[in-house]
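Posting for a labmate who doesn't have an account.
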Amino acid sequence: MSQVVLSAKNRQKAGSAESRRLRRGGRIPAVLYGRAGQAIVIDLDALEFTRRVKHISESTIVKIEIDGTSHDAFVKDTQRNIVDGNILHVDFYEVESGVALRAKVSIHLHGNPIGVREGGMLESPLHEIEVECLPKDLPERIDVDISELKVNQSLHVRDIPLGEGVKLISGPDQVVALVKFAKAEAVPAAAETEAAAAAPGAAPAAGAAPAAAGTTAAAPAAEKKG
């Protein structure tokens, strides 16, 4: 995938009134934060940004052209209107060529595991890992084939192949995917006993003496003295 390039303009004014004016004109107010803490206020074409960044991830490096100057950066945050979903503001974080960075990369599982075909259930508790590398070596995502995963087998972070120059930061023992059989629901024995006792005409419990013929459960009343 070729690098996404966005055209931006320096903002001469800031504030909520200026942001509303930009949005009415089809622009998105944004800020580019540098590694040293400096910030550049910019604005972007709303249609271009929405179209070009639709399928990128948090670990995708985009190129921002600001008045003839290029900046490589991550899209760190986008604020949206909760009613119509339109983007209200964007925060970028600049990266420097030749300087190592840490980023979270999404994991994409593919393939139908052997264990699932045998009746097991697939669980995938982890969806991203943290790595450290140079910007040029940062993967947009990590594809993992789980076709050979059998029942009662697990895939851990340490099992994920990483590219050259990419260092793992996440814990290596974290489980990425596992296949296991579903546990059958067991009915407690006590519940079964109670259900049987409540049924009409239930048989007496084991070891209980049968009731004598012609007797009643109630004790005879005391004889009234004259």
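Reply:
Got it, the structure tokens are right above this. The radius of gyration is 33 Å.
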